[in-house]
């Protein structure tokens, strides 16, 4: 028995001596290294090409941080796009009449700024600016009344009134399609004006483009127009033997003045030559020359000292304005 054990020990010693010469120099088991060889340590630079990021040397720390930032940015973009797609689908369902969460419908734009990398170069990501809207409502001094076609005439919403039956007068008097106008360009008339649609349309445009801007905010703005003449089967200036007046065809309107919202009246008779409304009346009179073929006022003759006569007659030499 003793001899067998001694033989086994000798065999193991011989095997150990033989294997030591073939042990790798970098073996992690020191007892298998060669007796004459020094223990070798791995240099840090030897792991630069390692495929495992955590074993890379400290010299690549900046590159690792940049790569991690790019990955984080891409993940944020993907998440935000997923949220926006959800909002779009919710709004589409709401528009189609399907039942959805009302809280999601109210979100029309994501509150989280959408991030975009600058070429994925590691530069600082710039968020998209989201415009902030204020909830404070701005008040307007006066609301504009919305007009519908109901109650309008001549196919223009701003001309309010009613259609009237055909007027057959003696001689050349009459209107084929008369209208009774009560309001033009949002301004009421002090009396019903019977004219044809051509005259009504000219009056509507002139009041909107010239009269209202000329008065502006004076006295709170224009409130009404004083009408003293429309259709009338008569001669010019009601003189016997004179030519038939444009009033007899529904082509003319006579205006005595303009009333402001504070009660002030710019009267042609009282304020043409004096008073606070003098310059405004002259500006209004001048602006009518062009939209109307004939414009007569206090400077024309003794028959028009208290009103403006406007008609749509055509003259060979152009508009006649006095």
Distance between the termini: 153 Å
- Rg on CA atoms, Å: 49 Å
Q: Count every beta strand, where a strand is a DSSP E run of 2 or more residues.
A: 14
Order of helices and strands: HHHEEEEEEEEHEEEHHEEE
The backbone outline, from C-alpha atoms, is elongated
Q: Please tell me the total number of domains.
A: 2
Largest sheet: 10 strands, mixed
Proportion in helices: 25-40%
Mean of residue pLDDT values: 78
Number of helices: 6
Proportion of strand residues: 15-25%
Label the structural class. Answer: alpha+beta
Low-confidence stretches: 20-25, 27-40, 104-110, 115-141
SSE diagram, text form:
Layout: H1 2-20, H2 61-95, H3 102-105, E1 115-116, E2 126-127, E3 152-153, E4 156-163, E5 167-168, E6 174-175, E7 179-184, E8 187-195, H4 197-215, E9 222-229, E10 252-260, E11 265-267, H5 268-271, H6 278-287, E12 294-296, E13 308-311, E14 320-321
Parallel strand pairs: 8-9, 12-14
Antiparallel strand pairs: 1-2, 3-4, 4-7, 5-6, 7-8, 9-10, 10-11, 10-13, 12-13
């Amino acid at each position: 028995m003793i001899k067998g054990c001694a033989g086994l020990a000798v065999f193991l010693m011989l095997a150990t001596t033989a294997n030591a010469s073939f042990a790798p120099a970098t073996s992690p088991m020191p007892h298998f290294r060669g007796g004459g060889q020094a223990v070798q340590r791995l240099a840090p630079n030897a792991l630069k090409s390692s495929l495992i990021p955590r074993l890379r040397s400290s010299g690549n720390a900046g590159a690792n941080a940049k790569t991690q930032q790019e990955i984080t940015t891409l993940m944020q973009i993907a998440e935000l796009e997923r949220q926006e797609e959800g909002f779009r689908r919710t709004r589409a369902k709401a528009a189609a009449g399907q039942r959805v969460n009302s809280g999601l419908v109210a979100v029309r734009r994501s509150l989280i700024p959408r991030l975009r990398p600058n070429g994925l170069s590691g530069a600082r990501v710039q968020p998209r600016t989201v415009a902030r809207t204020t909830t404070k409502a701005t008040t307007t001094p006066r609301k504009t009344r919305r007009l519908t076609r109901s109650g309008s005439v001549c196919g223009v919403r701003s001309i309010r009134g009613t259609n009237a039956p055909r007027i057959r007068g003696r001689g050349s008097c009459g209107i084929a399609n008369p209208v009774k106008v009560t309001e033009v360009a949002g301004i009421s008339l002090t009396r019903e004006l019977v004219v044809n649609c051509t005259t009504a349309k000219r009056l509507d445009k002139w009041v909107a483009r010239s009269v209202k801007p000329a008065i502006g905010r004076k006295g709170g703005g224009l409130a009404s127009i004083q009408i003293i003449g429309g259709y009338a089967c008569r001669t010019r200036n009601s003189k016997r033997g004179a030519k038939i007046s444009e009033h007899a065809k529904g082509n003319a309107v006579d205006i005595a003045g303009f009333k402001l919202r504070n009660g002030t009246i710019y009267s042609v008779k009282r304020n043409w030559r004096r008073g606070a409304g003098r310059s405004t009346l002259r500006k209004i009179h001048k602006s009518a020359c062009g939209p109307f073929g004939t414009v007569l006022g206090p400077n024309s003759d003794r028959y028009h000292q208290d009103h403006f006569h406007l008609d749509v007659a055509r003259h060979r030499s152009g508009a006649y304005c006095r």
